[in-house]
Amino acid sequence: MPSVNRCLSALRRIRIANQTFQQSAQLRAVQQISQVRWQHAEATTTASNAEHNPPESRSGVPNKKQIKFTSESYPQIKRDSRFKELTLDDVKFFKDVLGSDNAIIDGVSQDASSELEAFRADWMRKFRGQTKLVLKPGSTEEVSKILKYCNDNKIAVNPQGGNTGLVGGSVPVFDEIVINLGRMNKIRDFDDVSGILVADAGTILEVADNHLAEHGHIFPLDLAAKGTCQIGGNVATNAGGLRLLRYGSLHGNVLGIEAVLPDGTIVNDLGKLRKNNTGYDLKQLFIGGEGTIGIITAVSILCPQRSPAVNVAYFGLSSYEKVQEAFKEAKKSLQEILSAFELMDGNSQKIMTRASGHKLPLENEYPFYCLIETSGSNEEHDSEKMSAFLEHVMGEGIVEDGVLAENETQAANLWACREGVSEASQHFGGVYKYDVSIPLPELYQLVADCRQRFIDNGMMDTEDDSKPVLDVIGYGHMGDSNLHLNVCTRWYDKEVEKALEPWVFEWIQKREGSISAEHGLGLTKKEYIGYSRNQTMIDLMKQIKNLYDPNGIMNPYKYI
Hints:
This protein has about 550 residues and is an alpha+beta fold. The protein is about 30% helix and about 20% strand. Strand 5 and strand 6 form a beta hairpin. The model is unreliable at about 1-65 (pLDDT under 50).
């Protein structure tokens, strides 16, 4: 083990100063649609809905093919016969309500396929609906009129925010109307004494956070997709993000909501009180409800003070046991200033560097890497606590090597090593993503067991291009036991999926985990909810759904 002094010296060297790392936004650009390669295979229940066609060559650019409709890839799902098909009269009503050609994309009376595509297909090219109409309301009142009409006429709707989800919840399955809230993007109010923000649901997360920064506050949620995702969608999916360890979940931070029920009723509960024990806390049903009982149109949320002193460190470890020790020590030593503790295995970092072409900030490779962040009010105090923590974990042999950012640019570069993994994981073909919660002692074992499973069945090889699986990687949030299991593939393959499902869900069920930690159920996990919830709870959820939405028009075919 290297000496403590040498390790600390290494930590304090500005080793990343002369290295150029891509920011997370740049890493997001790694995945180009034209680079995806496909194999001849039948579509499967959770594989990509893109047509499976061979590339022009193993090293060349593949033929560009349209994404298959979700209904073709999920033939077991049938269109609900209760739902009306759109007519020109319906379109006229919606145009009269919205009053602007810019607020509607009409594919009923004319061909608008190219304009519709961005709203009926997801960003991962896995799901694609057949909607012929996109509505972009500009107010809660317009949403109310639209939903009342749809409910009266049994027209199915698909609420949509930034369309950054991973489970098919934000795009239609058949011909549901897409109600996109992007035009409802006003920040209504912010009180810098209480720290309470009231904003429209269509407000982009990064825009809200930038507004708060001007007042010395921060949005209590941070995601890699913050430049695109909308806060209404964040709340509807109960997004977790990178700093849940410090700020908690949206169930605790959201103080009130404004929502529209399927029958057009406006629920105005934009409370600004942290304490209100008068009856059932109904807003909680909409947080994580994925638009199945109503559309959130505005949110009241508690936003903490922005910390002036932020420290970020990145280090390598020899085992997952050491990761757990480091996390335990971080909570003990850093306590109130610890804002993030992120886990990345060595394979995830290899994928990230292979996709981006850049080096990691550490000279040697390690089986595991962690990124920790502290946020406080006293730079000298916080730096001393961070240094003491690093000295301890390195002196005890818990951490092998590390680097400490010395400015904001370096901190952003270190964060890019974590935030860039998600997009890089699908750079070489495709990816099967699982967002799960597992008790910490067994958190990483799922990755190890999954990797071994593909090695044993001969489907994985990091070098052999004839194998469908390139690698199995794991990363996530230690602070809330949230693992992202990514099976990186050279192409989407039915046999890969058969090896994964329901095996992954059975593995999680045995350890009393959750099959969905922060991305929701959507379409892909609807049928597997029984692996995390008992039948009594499922029945109660169905009763709530039927009570609020008896005609079933809200985001059908998903969730429950």
